[in-house]
Design brief:
The chain is of the alpha/beta class. The chain has 2 domains: about 280 residues, TIM Barrel; about 70 residues, no CATH class. The chain has 16 helices and 14 strands. The strands form 3 sheets. A 9-stranded mixed beta sheet has the order 7-8-6-5-4-3-2-1-9, sandwiched between helices. Strands 10-11-12 form a 3-stranded antiparallel beta sheet, with no helix packed on it. A two-stranded antiparallel sheet has the order 13-14. Helix 3 links the parallel strand 2 and strand 3. The longest helix has 19 residues. The protein is globular and about 55 Å long. It comes from Georgenia muralis.
Length: about 425
């Protein structure tokens, strides 16, 4: 079961944004997230807003989804081109990044994903060198599909590898054969696509040797990018119920820390260096620019049921169920369920909370002096080995390896 949507004010049915959203927009990139809410099987640990196609029908089905998403893209283009918003300073911006996530986006045929990308291109245009990513399960694509995606303008594919150990995959309810990974990665590279692989550590029953096996297998694929996420057991998921009943052990924080340190050792040794706490890239240009835009506070429109968007300090989220989502768009209404406008304090807290996770760190007071109280906090964090001392002296927080393990605690101290 996906988590409940947050509370917020009721957005207008036409999706119109407050004029404040235009402030500073010329200095921010515009990205588009396309949510495809379909999976063949819902994994026991997953709390994303996903559905099996058998649960849906009509305009909410996978067969009709590309056209439904196009309707929201058209609405988004109208909202951002609103005369009052443009007069307030909203520029016409080509899209810098597109990310198709899910769910399993490649449950849709390549022509549908190409059509959704085409709708984005028609609405705003794509910037020169735009990054266009789709997620994919290893068993949901073949060489022909990857070639078709590259021909349509996709530049990058992120494979949900999760583990190379069959027993760990079984605990996660993942259905792909890990032996298929070398084939799909080779097909993607032959098509000219950059390759990322996603890993999960801390699955109940996973040993340190299991995790090393997965890391070694990922490195052997010679990807451009690796994401390594600690498993979080969410309430409301099947795995959450198994842990609650004592059928599976709860992941251990110390075990997760050891596995993160091993990931740093193995990935760095293979030439993949961290640029965000959970993300590693071979070269700076291989970092996921779409996710960097999230962490740096740029603008993005999230298309799809349950998708979240952010433009100029205005954040909103769509209705969750695909059937309700499709129905609202069919009737010319925005699918937004709620929104909030961030105040100056909330925006500053978010800037620090997200920026501190980046290898470049975050300026505590851009262009200004750091208050004495905050300077003392940073000095103490450096003394404890959680942030780099050199940048700290200049008012910038950059995490050490130990600091990455305790990133949430660092953020709490900085924002207390």
């Amino acid at each position: 079961m996906a988590p409940a949507l947050p509370d917020g004010e009721t957005p207008p049915d036409d999706g119109r944004l407050p004029l404040s959203a235009a402030a500073g927009a010329a200095d921010r990139d515009l990205g588009v997230y396309l949510h495809v809410p379909f999976c063949r099987v819902r994994c026991g640990y997953c709390d994303f807003n996903t559905y099996t196609n058998a649960e849906l029908g009509g305009g909410a089905s996978a067969q009709a989804y590309a056209e439904t998403a196009r309707r929201e893209i058209d609405l988004a283009a109208r909202v951002l081109a609103d005369e009052a918003l443009v007069a307030a300073g909203m520029p016409a911006r080509p899209v810098s990044t597109v990310f198709v996530g899910g769910g399993t986006p490649t449950m849709l045929p390549a022509r549908d994903l190409a059509g959704m990308l085409g709708a984005v291109r028609d609405a705003w245009g794509l910037a020169d060198g735009a990054e266009v990513t789709t997620e994919a399960n290893p068993d949901s694509v073949d060489a022909a599909a990857l070639t078709a995606l590259a021909a349509a303008g996709f530049t990058r594919v992120s494979f949900g590898m999760q583990s190379a150990v069959p027993g760990v995959l079984a605990t996660l309810d993942r259905t792909h054969d890990p032996a298929r990974l070398p084939d799909v990665v080779a097909w993607a590279k032959a098509a000219g696509l950059a390759v990322s692989v996603d890993l999960i550590y801390g699955t109940p029953g996973e040993s340190l040797d299991d995790w090393r096996t997965s890391l070694d297998a990922a490195v052997a694929l010679e990807p451009d990018h690796v994401s390594a996420y600690a498993l979080v057991v969410e309430a409301g998921t099947r795995m959450g119920a198994q842990v609650r009943r004592g059928e599976l052990p709860l992941p251990d924080d110390d075990d997760a820390a050891r596995k993160y340190e091993l990931a740093e050792e193995v990935l760095a040794g293979a030439g993949l260096h961290w640029y965000e706490v959970s993300n590693f890239a071979r070269r700076p240009d291989d970092a996921c620019r779409h996710n960097l835009a999230y962490w740096r506070g740029h603008d993005w429109w999230g298309v799809g049921p349950g998708a979240h968007s952010h433009v100029g300090g205005v954040r909103w989220w769509n209705v969750k169920h695909p059937r309700t989502y499709a129905h609202r768009l069919e009737n010319g209404l925005s699918p937004a369920a709620g929104r909030e406008v961030l105040g100056a304090r909330e925006a500053e807290l978010e800037r620090i909370m997200l920026g501190v996770r980046l290898a470049d760190g975050v300026e505590l007071r851009p262009g200004g002096a750091v208050p004495a109280r905050l300077a003392a906090v940073v000095t103490d964090l450096a003394r404890r080995g959680l942030v780099e001392p050199g940048p700290a002296r200049d008012g910038r927080v950059a995490l050490t390896l130990r600091g990455r393990l305790l990133a949430d605690a660092v953020v709490r101290e900085l924002t207390a």
